[in-house]
Specification:
Blueprint lengths: L6 H11 L2 H7 L7 H12 L1 E2 L14 E3 L2 E3 L3 E3 L5 H4 L3 H12 L4 E3 L6 H7 L5 E4 L5 H13 L4 E5 L9 H6 L9 H7 L3 H8 L22 H8 L6 H11 L3 E6 L2 H9 L4 E4 L13 H12 L4 E4 L6 H10 L3 E4 L1 H32 L13 E2 L11
Helix pairs in contact: 1-16, 5-16, 13-14, 15-16
This protein binds flavin mononucleotide (FMN).
Flavin mononucleotide binds next to helix 2 and helix 16.
Length: about 400
């Protein structure tokens, strides 16, 4: 096993080990992938202010997210079909997050069901809900999340219609893969993956199959999303969902200051500034460039988290110093999972933690909670100077 020093080392191993269609599913953005690329490259424009001769002993990355203690303010984002990247991928990711002391978010579109993840973990995790046309399914899913003792509902707002990712169409992405000649040839080169999959607890959409009425073939995520995701989702419906859930609600996919204000009005406890990792509206601003105006609009009333583009502890530090209360990582932990299962997720978290901790020290900071904009050198017009 090669020495792993950064997230991209994990990505290289992941590419070798995972079936091509699932690697491509992760490593794609929509259409031209401009937003997907800029989510990462926009972090590079922000520089860090080096400070010296400051006591750097006794550093702490501990913080809270929606009132929960976290070892560092980095949650694992909901990722569809995680259990296809690696057998029982959701269970393994949740266990790694639990052991590390950071939140795990299970997607509606998981392979392991919410009950399977609850059974395999001790501490509460978070559940991400997609709103479907079938209201009964949504109500039941909320009840199942309560029964599983989930401590927050993450409601995703930026995927009521699917942004096109070319490779998923070209690869004929399905869960599980269909036995086509192309797939058989590719899978024959992934023996670790196949062997582990033979013992997996689930092979299909564990939260949906057997729970949603009239659903027979959901192997194709894209056609199922087109049929089932509710295109009429609006702020009134979000208010109803908040009432039904009754607990902590995080609204995911906010990229605009006006929407951030609306999120506060419907009673969100936190928002997640996100463009879905560049997988939905191609051409949208990167999350890090969208953050400052949203923070101004929110004005400290609720917590503001950020995802999309975080590949290092330096990125975490930049987002926190800009004013975020925490971040989520998507691909960074999936690279680890696909490379080495649970151990790989742990390694991804360790890499990010070490980078965050050391970078804090070199910026002359001992406590992640005290980072602020004075730690950063932000280019003029970083948010963009757009016409009205
Ligand atoms: C392969 C993949 C699947 C995803 N599936 C979901 C999902 O089921 N639900 C959701 O709300 N977001 C989903 N997302 C978006 C992530 O939750 C998160 O917003 C994104 O990955 C952050 O960007 P990053 O990957 O650059 O960290 C997915 C992202 C990826 C890469």
């Amino acid at each position: 096993m090669p020495t792993i020093t950064n997230i991209y080392d994990l990505k290289k191993i992941y590419k070798r080990r995972a079936p091509k269609m699932f690697y491509d599913y992760t490593e794609s953005g929509s259409w031209t992938e401009q937003t997907f690329r800029e989510n990462v490259t926009d972090f590079d424009h922000i520089r860090l202010r080096q400070r010296v001769a400051v006591d750097m002993s006794g550093r702490s990355t501990a913080s809270t997210m929606i009132g929960e203690d976290v070892a560092m303010p980095v949650a694992l984002a909901p990722i569809g079909i995680t259990g296809m990247q690696c057998a029982d991928g959701e269970i393994k990711s949740a266990r790694a997050a639990e052991a590390f002391g950071v939140p795990y978010t299970l997607t509606t579109m998981s392979v392991n069901s919410i009950e399977q993840v609850a059974e395999a973990t001790e501490k509460p995790f978070w559940f991400q809900l997609y709103v479907m046309r079938d209201e009964n399914f949504v109500d039941t899913m909320i009840e199942r999340a309560k029964a599983a003792k989930c401590s927050a509902l993450v409601l995703t707002l930026d995927l009521q219609i699917l942004g096109q990712r070319h490779m998923d169409i070209k690869n004929g992405l399905t869960t599980p893969p269909k036995p086509t000649l192309k797939n058989i040839i590719n899978l024959s080169t992934k023996p670790h993956w196949g062997l582990a999959m033979l013992g997996a607890k689930s092979w299909t959409f564990g939260n949906i199959v057997g729970h949603a009425k009239g659903v027979d073939d959901i192997s194709s995520l894209s056609s199922w999303a087109a049929e089932q995701f509710d295109p009429t989702l609006d702020w009134d419906k979000i208010k109803e969902i908040k009432k039904k859930w009754g607990g902590e609600l995080i609204l995911k996919g906010i990229l605009d200051a006006e929407d951030a204000k609306k999120a506060i009005n419907v009673g969100a406890d936190a928002i997640l500034v996100s463009n879905h990792g560049g997988r939905q509206l191609d051409g949208a601003l990167s999350s890090i460039r969208s953050l400052a105006p949203i923070l101004d609009a929110v004005n400290g009333k609720i917590e503001v988290f950020l995802d999309s583009g975080i590949r290092s502890g330096q990125d975490v530090l930049k987002a926190m110093a800009m004013g975020a209360d925490g971040v989520f990582i998507g691909r960074s932990y999936i690279y680890g999972l696909g490379a080495m299962g649970q151990k790989g997720v742990t390694t991804a978290l360790e890499v990010i933690h070490k980078e965050l901790d050391t970078t804090m020290a070199l910026c002359g900071r001992r406590d992640v909670k005290t980072l602020d904009r004075s730690d950063l050198l932000i280019p003029k017009n970083f948010e963009g100077d757009w016409q009205d």
